[in-house]
């Protein structure tokens, strides 16, 4: 009974069950190999994962995590700068607003010409897309800090480094984690497109190659792998947020 109660309380499990039910209903409705059954897909997935899918997933994961890491290293300091400086905000924010809506995925051919056809162009493409999410999230996190808190910290004689440690960083962390969740979803979508050009490894390449070969069971196995990768990364963000922002979950 305890195991059953835990399963009923598991929201992730609820979501997986609902998706599988919808998937199965589509399978029996379409009555075509284009949408294979969940059972056959999971069976094929576990057959392919050890030697095939794991390699493609690892290649995609390295590209995503590298791009996210670079975006954090660049985006967080810039976000702090424009959040703390009205002058920097007035100069840089308009530039961000102009560049952010641009469909940067269309610049992949240019990146490939300038940076080569390897991972550098694909990672650069992801960085140019998700860095704005992080930068804006950090800036807005700072702007939401009430001025009274600054006055309180200053009145206690806290140093500038202490202000960042005890006030600014805790204030922006929830915003940063929200930005990272959005960035991960965008990264996976962008990478799926980018991996269809000049590469032989990556889950995006694997899915499209299976589609070209009219192997829908392998294609859905790749889609399942991509979904699980996204699920694991988002759950990791939840765990990290609970560790570094425990006050968010006290409400």
Number of domains: 1
Compressed to H and E, one letter per element, the order equals HHHHHHHHHH
CATH fold-level assignment: MetI-like fold
Strand content: under 5%
Describe the sheet with the most strands: none
Based on helices, strands and strand pairing, what is the structural class? Answer: mainly alpha
Average pLDDT over all residues: 86
Number of strands: 0
Taking the alpha carbons of the first and last residues, their distance comes to 29 Å
Runs with pLDDT <50, length 5+? none
Helix content: over 70%
Put simply, the count of helices is: 10
Write out the CATH superfamily name: MetI-like
CATH architecture: Orthogonal Bundle
- The coarse silhouette is globular
CATH class: Mainly Alpha
Keywords: Cell membrane, Membrane, Transmembrane, Transmembrane helix, Transport
Protein name: NitT/TauT family transport system permease protein
Subcellular location: Cell membrane
Membrane topology: Multi-pass membrane protein
Provide the descriptors you would attach to this structure in a database record.
single chain; 251 residues; mainly alpha; MetI-like fold; 0% strand
Q: How would you describe the overall organization of this protein?
A:
With 251 residues, this protein is mainly alpha-helical. It has one domain: Orthogonal Bundle (MetI-like fold). The chain contains ten helices and no strands. The relative contact order is 0.12. Residues 57-241 form the ABC transmembrane type-1 domain.
């Amino acid at each position: 009974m305890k195991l059953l109660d835990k399963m009923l309380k598991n929201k992730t499990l609820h979501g997986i069950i609902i998706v599988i039910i919808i998937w199965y209903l589509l399978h029996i409705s379409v009555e075509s190999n284009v949408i294979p059954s969940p059972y056959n897909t999971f069976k094929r997935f576990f057959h392919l994962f050890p030697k095939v899918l794991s390699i493609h997933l690892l290649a995609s994961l390295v590209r995503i995590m590298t791009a996210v890491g670079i975006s954090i290293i660049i985006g967080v300091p810039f976000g702090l700068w424009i959040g703390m400086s009205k002058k920097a905000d007035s100069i840089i924010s308009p530039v961000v607003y102009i560049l952010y809506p641009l469909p940067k995925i269309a610049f992949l051919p240019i990146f490939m010409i300038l940076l080569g056809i390897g991972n550098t162009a694909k990672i650069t493409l992801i960085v140019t897309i998700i860095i704005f999410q992080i930068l804006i999230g950090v800036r807005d996190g700072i702007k939401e800090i009430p001025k009274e808190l600054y006055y309180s910290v200053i009145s206690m004689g806290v140093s500038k480094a202490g202000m960042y440690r005890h006030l600014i960083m805790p204030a922006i962390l929830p915003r940063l984690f929200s930005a990272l969740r959005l960035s991960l979803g965008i990264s996976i979508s962008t990478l799926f497109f980018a991996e269809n050009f000049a590469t032989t490894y990556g889950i995006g390449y694997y899915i499209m190659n299976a589609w070209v070969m009219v192997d829908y069971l392998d294609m859905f196995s790749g889609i399942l792998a991509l979904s699980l990768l996204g699920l694991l990364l988002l759950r990791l963000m939840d765990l990290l947020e609970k560790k570094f922002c425990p006050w968010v979950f006290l409400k």
